[in-house]
Specification:
The protein is of the alpha/beta class. The protein has helices at about 15-25, 35-40, 45-55, 70-85, 105-110, 125-135, 145-150, 160-170, 185-195, 200-205, 215-235; strands spanning about 10-15, 30-35, 65, 90-95, 115-120, 140-145, 175-180, 195-200. Helix content is about 45%, strand content about 15%. It has an 8-stranded parallel barrel with strand order 1-2-3-4-5-6-7-8, surrounded by 7 helices. α6 packs parallel to α8.
Length: about 240
């Protein structure tokens, strides 16, 4: 299968502004997501300035920015600030706060207001159902299921993702998203499940040119890499 045969939309997942701009220029990805952990890793020091720069650089693709607060009152205030950044902005709301309290009432309020939401950190079908039911008719939203982390727990995520797709399609404008991509093959898995979107980090996006490569040629290139690295080491096994 070739990469251009896939139906799924690939979103870049990260918070390195230069990397985001570079992926945008390549024209492969169809949107961008980020989160507080990625911002910390990228060394972001000013949330609003960072977000404004991203919106200015990428004005015509979906962008997801997450709230930072843990109480729902502050989350709601942050969500309104984030949503005002641009028409292409989705506000990421975690399915619960750190105390395990459900975010569904907040999701209902924000969706009723017409804010585009990306409900994140979803791990169970019950959470998928709750999130979709809370979204207002006629709004645009994303439900992000952390399939990669689910599989980190030794659980096959594909059956759940197929059911997630079915539930999301019950609400027009709601898209399913495979989050926490671990390898390029996850894109194939998500595509065959019918998932709308998969988030992929820049290091995995760099591997996309290998997609569909002849495996015999790939084998040869790997051996050639080993040979080059062996020469560069300067080692001698035979005395």
């Amino acid at each position: 299968m070739r990469f251009d045969e896939l139906k799924i939309a690939v979103f870049a997942d990260g918070a390195d502004i230069d990397g985001m701009k570079a992926e945008y220029e390549k024209g492969i990805v169809k949107g961008f997501t980020t989160n507080p952990s990625l911002m910390k890793k990228a060394g972001v020091t000013d949330y609003v300035s960072f977000s404004e720069e991203v919106v200015k650089a990428i004005p015509d693709l979906p962008l997801s920015f997450e709230v930072f607060a843990d109480d729902f009152e502050t989350m709601e205030k942050e969500a309104r600030v984030i949503a005002a950044l641009g028409d292409n902005v989705y506000v990421k709301i975690p399915i619960t706060n750190t105390k395990g309290e459900s975010s569904i009432p907040l999701i209902q309020r924000l969706s009723a207001y017409g804010i585009k939401l990306n409900v994140t950190a979803v791990f169970t079908l019950e959470q998928v159902r709750q999130a979709v039911d809370a979204l207002a008719e006629g709004t645009q939203n994303i439900v992000s299921v952390f399939a990669g982390r689910i599989m980190d727990a030794g659980v096959d995520a594909e059956p759940m993702m197929k059911e997630t797709v079915a539930v999301c399609r019950e609400k027009a404008g709601t898209q399913s998203l495979w989050a926490s991509c671990r390898e390029v093959f996850n894109i194939v898995q998500a595509d065959r499940c019918g998932v709308d979107i998969i988030t992929v980090t820049n290091d995995l996006l760099a591997k996309i040119p290998n997609f569909g490569k002849d495996l015999a040629q790939f084998s040869l290139e790997t051996v050639q890499m080993f040979a080059r690295d062996g020469v560069s080491l300067g080692f001698s096994i035979l005395k």
